[in-house]
Write a structure and sequence with these properties.
Length: 338
């Protein structure tokens, strides 16, 4: 594979499932046996994108948008109905064994570990399957034990682990053979904040140190904000946005918030610049929202401070959750990047 060649290349990719249709009752069962009928379900509809080596890409969408189906085609689990898929220059479905040696996959709600074995035994087996040399395996095991805090877990059967412990173990199992491409499907689902931060830090370090290409599908937008510079948004099987996360913020983060701590409670209505409004008020705390295309933060702050004694204030950037809601509401229909 050429250094300039994309790690992942997808062109006009399409996946259609044929779902059996059956009328109710015994008659319907007999009819379905002799004259089966099928309905077509288009899960992925003519999508194209490429991912260069070493990039972390967020692949996001609502449930049923086609994210997991795409990942299954990239890993070779599913064959495309139409279109081209190349991972490290290979067709993942036709060259499944060669492809599997170069990729790692974490499915947040499934496990690749042996349920009744101690974690270290599962890791030993996986290392042998992938022909990881004993010396390198020992180095990686020590590294992962430290960064993922696996020390006390190595002798523990997987079935006895908490959800957060299992996910740290899954990451170690996925990366023990040092794959060049990693797919993370909901890697932090159901985890507490502390465990999420550990996993995010580990993913960033693997990407920085080894140039690992990462495709991240998640409903946790905190994962996207922490890890990804680029996002691909899919809806109803089609890509509706592919570009920098910063552009999403700039284009759709129209409203910003600003909070003031005041010396005295607000007693009279404020005179504010156009596009600014009060959205919350407590004893000595005032929350405003303003349209950044109509007023600047300094204009809003100056207006408030000319009418109230302000002790402190803080500016809040737009939340990615609200931005994505705008996108699904149709905000991208006239403004999709090329």
């Amino acid at each position: 594979m050429s250094h300039n060649q994309p790690a992942i290349e997808v062109s006009r990719l399409r996946k259609v499932f044929h779902i059996p249709r059956r009328d109710p009752g015994l008659g319907g069962a007999v009819k379905a046996l002799f004259r089966p009928r099928y309905a077509e379900k288009v899960a992925v509809d003519d999508i194209s994108f490429s991912v260069p080596p070493g990039e972390i890409v967020g692949y996001i969408g609502v449930n049923g948008a086609g994210k997991s189906t795409t990942i299954k085609m990239l890993t070779g689990i599913l064959a495309p109905t139409a279109g081209l898929v190349r991972v490290l220059g290979r067709d993942p479905h036709k060259e499944r064994v060669a492809n599997a040696r170069q990729i790692g996959v974490v499915f947040g709600q499934r496990t690749q570990l042996w349920w009744d074995l101690a974690l270290v035994e599962s890791l030993n087996l996986i290392a042998r399957i992938y022909d990881v040399g004993p010396k390198r395996y020992k180095e990686l095991l020590e590294q992962f034990s430290y960064t993922l805090e696996l020390g006390e877990l190595l002798a523990k059967p997987v079935r006895q682990m908490s959800l957060g412990q299992k996910m740290r173990a899954e990451l170690a199992a996925t990366l023990i053979h040092e794959p060049r491409v990693v797919y993370l499907d909901e890697p932090t689902i159901g985890l507490d904040v502390v465990v999420k931060e550990k996993i995010r830090a580990f993913i960033k370090e693997q990407n920085r140190a080894k140039g690992t290409t990462v495709v991240l599908t998640t409903h946790d937008l905190g994962d996207i904000e922490e890890l990804c510079g680029r996002v691909i948004i899919i809806d109803a099987g089609r890509v509706i946005y592919d570009g920098p996360l910063a552009t999403i913020r700039e284009r759709f983060g129209q409203y910003r918030g600003i909070t003031f701590e005041t010396a005295r409670p607000l007693e009279h209505p404020l005179t504010l610049p156009p596009g600014a409004e009060v959205v919350g008020q407590e004893e000595r705390r005032l929350e405003l929202r303003f349209d950044r295309t109509r007023a600047s933060a300094s204009q809003v702050a100056a207006a408030v401070m000319s009418q109230l004694e302000v002790l402190d204030f803080s500016l809040c950037e737009p939340d990615l959750t609200s931005i994505v809601k705008q996108i699904y509401g149709g905000a991208l229909s006239e403004a999709r990047p090329a």
